[in-house]
Specification:
263 residues; 45% helix; alpha/beta
Length: 263
């Protein structure tokens, strides 16, 4: 096992396990955690993988969350250019998850929000617990925005109407709605049941034809990237470079409601 406390990676019988392990912060991700995920996803399923991983499972440590987005302390001194660099870094990590040469499974429980929801949306299969809460309530919390790449991921999964509702009302959807929308394929009682089912699914996948799985995933990825996404730097700069965003970050740490000014 590779254990740097905040992200744990281990392999057993060809099944890789990535655990987002910051339960005291609802597994909010640091930039270093995004980098480590990217490194793992680039390696597994290739000749450079010493562990011969056939399937990769993502889960969160503790009972409260899969991941509640990016750690907000990373945003304390953000400029508009920092925001563009950040979104490009995040998109690079999510793209590497999507392009991973082995199937990926999300064992989701509790809060799955912001960057955590984006990671989940990038996985091939998602299994959730009954306490699952999915969304990106950024219009209430920070006043930033989703990059177009993440908007596209969510729209692909749950449809434009539901994404509009989630973002324009800053509401989270529960497990039943996530299942009916197709965000998760199964809804189980609790985290332990979800992890057990993810393991069972992964073991079944290791017995299947690897070239068929590879061709299927690569073919679907080509379909998804047929039309290039438009540039969104102006939208990212508008939100992350605003006084409102700075107010949102300050209010988060002051534990108060932000005073939005629209500037």
């Amino acid at each position: 096992m590779t254990d740097d406390a905040e992200l744990q990676y281990s392999v057993t019988d060809g099944i890789g396990h990535i655990v987002l392990n910051r339960p005291h912060r609802r597994n909010a991700l640091t930039f270093e955690m995004y980098d480590r995920i990217r490194e793992i996803c680039v390696t597994v399923g290739t000749d450079a993988d010493p562990d011969d991983v056939r399937v990769l499972i993502f889960s969160g440590g503790g009972d409260a969350a899969f991941a509640a987005g990016t750690d907000i302390s990373q945003f304390r001194s953000f400029t508009a250019q920092d925001a563009i660099d950040y979104e490009q870094m995040i998109d690079g990590t999510l793209t590497m998850i999507e392009e991973c040469r082995v199937p990926t499974i999300g064992a989701l429980n509790g809060f799955c929000t912001g960057g955590g929801a984006a990671i989940a949306a990038s996985l091939d299969i998602r299994i959730g617990s009954r306490d699952l809460k999915v969304g990106a309530p950024i219009a209430r919390t920070l006043g930033n925005c989703l990059a177009i790449g993440n908007l596209n991921r969510f729209v692909r999964l749950v449809g434009e109407a539901r994404v509009k509702y989630m973002l324009l009302t800053a509401q989270l959807i529960g497990a039943e709605e996530a299942a009916s929308a197709g965000f998760i394929s199964e809804c189980l009682d609790d985290r332990d049941a979800v992890l057990s089912r993810a393991e069972e699914t992964a073991r079944g996948i290791t017995e299947l034809a690897p070239l068929t799985l590879d061709a299927t995933m690569r073919g679907l990825r080509r379909l998804q990237t047929m039309t290039p996404l438009p540039d969104d730097h102006d939208l990212v700069e508008q939100c992350f470079g605003s006084a409102d965003f700075k107010e949102g970050v300050t209010a988060f740490f002051d534990k108060r409601k932000p005073d939005w000014k629209g500037v």
